[in-house]
Amino acid sequence: MGYRCIQCWCPVKTLYVQYSPGNIRLMKCENCKAVADEYIECEIMILVIDLILHKPKAYRHLLHNVINQETMKFHGLLWKLAVIFLLFESYRCLILESSKGKLGSSNSVSSLVSICWKVLMDVIIGNLMFLLTFFFMVKMFFHVSITISRCIDLLLTLMISSYFKIFLIAMMVWDFPSSVIFIIELFCLSSNAAALKVMTESTMRRCVWTCFSAYAIKFIVTRILELILLGQLMQGWSQMPFTFSKATMI
Ligand SMILES: [Zn+2]
Description:
By secondary structure, this protein is mainly α. The protein folds into 2 domains: about 5-65, no CATH class; about 75-240, no CATH class. The chain has helices at about 45-50, 55-65, 75-100, 100-105, 110-140, 150-160, 170-175, 180-200, 205-250, and strands at about 5, 10, 15-20, 25.
């Protein structure tokens, strides 16, 4: 996957020519005659603002001209992003558990273990179902074959476009209501859809439906897991007096 013009999406040989350190000339696209990628010379904050504004050119620059399989250590980046993504997801689950008052009231080892178990199940099974639904919807809506390289591309697109999760760090410092997580998830959904549109060049409606379905399945699966875990705990508590009375009788 080579470089592309962020205006018209045509392949270009190179984005700039470097004459000396700090002295570069941006290349023009042969198709549309515009500068192929003006973000090369822009400050990082301008790129961040344009990403937040969901400008397709900013996503094209980031997903195709910066994250390039031919010019960077692609798999190393994939693993690092996956670890960061899962850490943010774990922290999100912990915030939700603390908002329910479970962390504050947990003074026994067993309740702490059950919370850790729930967070682990939410993160692993929730995100696994999210990815399976996402790939299935991409196959159904966009009529493309899901190969390993396409899976990696889509996975990277999802993780990079979930950059709004970085705002969870602010919740470590300042005390926000847990409803802020819902707003962050909403921004992530819209950003995922914008990135998917850039990757597939499809309509925004299809991209939003694809991402919304994946988020909905993830939400339903985590709620079911919570109910199953709650059911097991209730069953365990209901058996405790019986076993206790049986022990005292003996
Ligand atoms: Zn062009």
